[in-house]
Amino acid sequence: MFAYPEKARYGRVIPKTKIFEKSDAPSSLRRLFAAQVEKLIWEYKLAPDTVNLPIGDGVLEIQVITASLKTPEFDPALLRVLEQSIPHPVFFELQSDAKVRTWATYKRPHETNSGQWVVGEYFASPWRYPDAPCPPLPLALDLHGLYASMLRSLMLPALPGESLRAHADRLSAFRIAQGEIRALTSRLRREKHFPRKVDLERELRNLRKSWKLELEAGGPESD
Length: 223
Prior knowledge:
- 39% of the residues lie in helices and 22% in strands.
- By secondary structure, it is an alpha+beta fold.
- Strand 3 (62-69), helix 4 (77-85) and strand 4 form a beta-alpha-beta unit.
- The chain is globular, with a radius of gyration of 20 Å.
């Protein structure tokens, strides 16, 4: 996603056998992981000594992990297992069919349960070729600022003055609204009773109005 500095390269294989050692993930998720993931590499560590930025607002490091996939299909639930075992924000570079796609979520420490992490919805970039030109890391004053800029590059635009947490929460709510819009649109196509059709149209119109800015910014209703 970015041209990471060579100084930040870590380049260590993550043994798949260790991923579930401290996890209570069900056996179905373990089988899914074996079926979809070929190899995991801890590619980069963005830390004070590798990117020359101080710690900021609880962000001590930012990790970049590459996952080579066996199939184009991928369940984000597998990323959540990894997230809980890594006490830092993570950007996943998923590789499949000679293309790569970045996935990441807003991740923060649990407010009352020390050692636990709150993981939200995932945001993803379009598929791209690995040799496509990448921009340099965003300018930032500290690692939290870098994390915010990196994550926001995967998200719809923030509102003026909107914090990263509020931004992520709003887009998570918008994702739910997108599902409601799709469901209402489908019901409207099937509805034959005119009065009920009018009610559905009104409900759909109001929902679209509530999320007008996000829809105009590029949040498709047909994903």
